[in-house]
Amino acid sequence: MLKFAKIKLTLLIAVTLFLSQCKNDFDVNDNWKDISVIYGLISSTDSIHYIRVSKAFLGDEDAYTMAQVSDSLYYQNAIVKIEERISGTLTNTFNCTKIDTIRDPGVFAHKNFVFATVANLSTNPNATYKLVVFANNNEITSETALIQNFNVVIPPSVNLYASSGKLSFQWETPAMARIFEPVVRFFYYDVTLIDTTLKFLDIPLGSKNSNTKVGGETLSSELIGTSFLSTIANIMPNSPNLIKRVVAKASLEVRISVGSDDMYTYIQVTQPSSGIVTEKPAFSNISNGLGLFTSRYLKVAPTYPTPKPFLSTRTMDSLALGVLTGPSGKNLKFMKGTDTQNIWNSFP
User: Fold this and answer.
1) 36-145 belongs to which CATH class?
2) Cystine design at 80: which of 3, 75, 96, 256 (Cβ 3.0–4.6 Å)?
3) How much is the pTM?
4) Is the pLDDT of residue 133 over 60?
């Protein structure tokens, strides 16, 4: 019993001596390290390409205070360029220019900038693009190929007046692509006493993923008639100055936004977790930094001179007289089908 009491006394003295050596004013910050954070999406369908170059920040002040300082977020003298190589041979160098931008006031500094270059990128499937950034004596790089054009098969005319009617289309996936977001764009004219204006409304159809980035898979999507009518009724605004609406002769267009395999992976790992395990691995394809540099593509179909699909007469009648968009519904003032066809030639 005496031996046990001595052991307790010895432990108590040791703990007391240890606590007496501790200080409350320790520094939770590690040594500062320059970490570049870079994002860029390039495409052969774009004429201007933007690169966002920023940095992680660390300091002893309040994080909200430091975030308001532009120098905490951005390099003031970074050099950014994109090198084009075809089959391994350097063919072009596109130097990026710093562009000042103003964001809405908030947590982060509202004065910031991006880097941009005006360039028509190659449609050669053997072309690759290397991003090179020099910032704070560091070289940060990343490389990507481009997603190439692909075909979309669309019918010439469409019935969308009921659940039995639908616009169905399909496409063959190009190499490098993994994520596809199709949208149907509906064109129409607003007619007032002052002018006639061509407008459009986009109807998103969700997301489709290919199994691999190899390409050659067949994917498809469709717009059901009832979804078409209900979306127009819910989204299209009314105007007191509106006399009538006229469905455009070339009334439908399919637009598919395409993301690369790297973009697909990045989206997957950054989505909120719905399971028990909430921690996810970080993803970056930036060498000597963090972020994402990859390609995207916007497919618009059909392209000129192939005409856009047109709505059937019965579909236009549903827009003009149906319970959702007609006088008994939202009353969007669409003309009936036969009347519309009779005046199509007078519209540009």
Assistant:
1) mainly beta
2) 96
3) 0.83
4) yes
